[in-house]
Amino acid sequence: MKVLIVEDDPLHRSYLHEAVNAALPECDTVIEAENGTAGEKLARDHKSAHIVMDLQMASRNGIEAARTIWKERPETRILFWSNYSDEAYVRGVSRIVPDGAAYGYVLKSASDERLKLALRSIFIESQCVIDREVRGLQQKSLGQTNGFTDSEYEILVDIALGLTDRAIAKRRGLSLRSVQNRLQQLYDKLDVYQTAGDDHEDGRFNLRARAVTIAFLRKLLNYSALERAEAELQEWLDGK
Amino acid sequence: MKVLIVEDDPLHRSYLHEAVNAALPECDTVIEAENGTAGEKLARDHKSAHIVMDLQMASRNGIEAARTIWKERPETRILFWSNYSDEAYVRGVSRIVPDGAAYGYVLKSASDERLKLALRSIFIESQCVIDREVRGLQQKSLGQTNGFTDSEYEILVDIALGLTDRAIAKRRGLSLRSVQNRLQQLYDKLDVYQTAGDDHEDGRFNLRARAVTIAFLRKLLNYSALERAEAELQEWLDGK
DNA sequence: AAACAAGCTGCGGGTTTACGCAAGACGGCG
DNA sequence: CGCCGTCTTGCGTAAACCCGCAGCTTGTTT
């Protein structure tokens, strides 16, 4: 059995290496990559079936890498090992995991024991292991209550990118009014009004900008999500 | 000699601990804190004069902590040890360092050797040690060319928070038109137009939102800067 | 089939933004 | 002192944004 580790930080990488050795005696080879790009390449070359991967990496982040890896071989088992449980990450991962694939999401703050258990569960038993904290987010995020629909999230990303209503309409194939409808819906859910008007007339917020701010503060968006969205946007722009 | 380490990540913390021991034989005590709040408290209790600190921490980030520590005892020597050289961090640090204080900014990607050297330079020789990469940013950031004035940065933060022109005017004691002037200035510097109109009429951006996006992508803003700004805003709002 | 909820769309109007134009205000400089 | 560059402010306009109202198209429920 072979395990591929994809992780930026040398300290964390060697820690993972040890953890893998300790948890999986049946594993005879461990290979390492220090960024997403290298990770993809190694996964392809070695036909890796077992991967442990960080989400936040400079060159090409974990979600990007995982997507292309899973596209090539959907049965690959991936354990995401991340510092954060940003809703943006959780949503990003949920979007790309293939049907029936075994994967895991464990926080770096988890104990050695938990990490080892997760390694065995996923790689040996093919079971999904999602950190409790992440699980909670996932439920409320994908469930309708208090969560955001895909279309709501989509428009959130669009205004975060700085598109005008008109541009969004064109991009998503909607009328201007529909875009604005969705915006209102979004403003509602993000509670932009509460913080906005308050009592006085003066403390007003710019709804559109404020929505993005709140989304950021709530980690519904983060840098990596923005980066990804920006890349998609450019792609779309080039395709006229 | 006593050294205080303030760092989230246990692995990095113990690495730092070892590095300090190796680099500073004259150091007899090392104490550790795992977040900014605890760091402040320990610094106060122990009257720490030598601190190594991460910037990105969950509970209270390094900049916040450093500010209050320096406020109480400006001669404290602090070495910032960070993963990133976001312009937002660099600017944040430059703002709070007291006149003549010895401090350092070293990236986590630096070699053991560099870290040890920095430790000795700052704590023993009272010299400032700024990572080359960070230094570059600092120069161009604070120098006028291609850098952002304080007033430009200020208004960038304000729109990133989602304030309206009117609210900004009130907050900063300016007229509406002046606020809009500064916005235009900002749009210019951020090159919002280039990406905006391009050729066609359709691909238009919402300048205000786009400026924030670009600032984020360029790491002129980041989560921690936003968080800080939001806290200041709330404070201002409460003070009517 | 009728009833209903949910989403898309056009219309209209009130507000906010973006910005050109031009008139002061302030600080250096020859 | 007068000249000049930078910053501020008011006026005015065109565009973009926010949103209530109402008519339509769906898919779902009873």
Task: Explain what the structure shows.
Chains A, B: This is Response regulator transcription factor. Chains A, B: Keywords: DNA-binding, Phosphoprotein. Chains A, B: GO terms for molecular function: DNA binding. 2 copies of one chain form a homodimer. Chain A has 240 residues and is of the alpha/beta class. The first copy, chain A, has 2 domains: 141 residues, 3-Layer(aba) Sandwich (Rossmann fold); 89 residues, Arc Repressor Mutant, subunit A (Orthogonal Bundle). Chain A contains 12 helices and 6 strands. A 6-stranded parallel beta sheet of chain A has the order 2-1-3-4-5-6. In chain A, helix 5 links the parallel strand 5 and strand 6. In chain A, helix 7 packs across helix 9. The first copy, chain A, is elongated. The first copy, chain A, starts with a strand and ends with a helix. The model of chain A has no long low-confidence stretch (mean pLDDT 91).
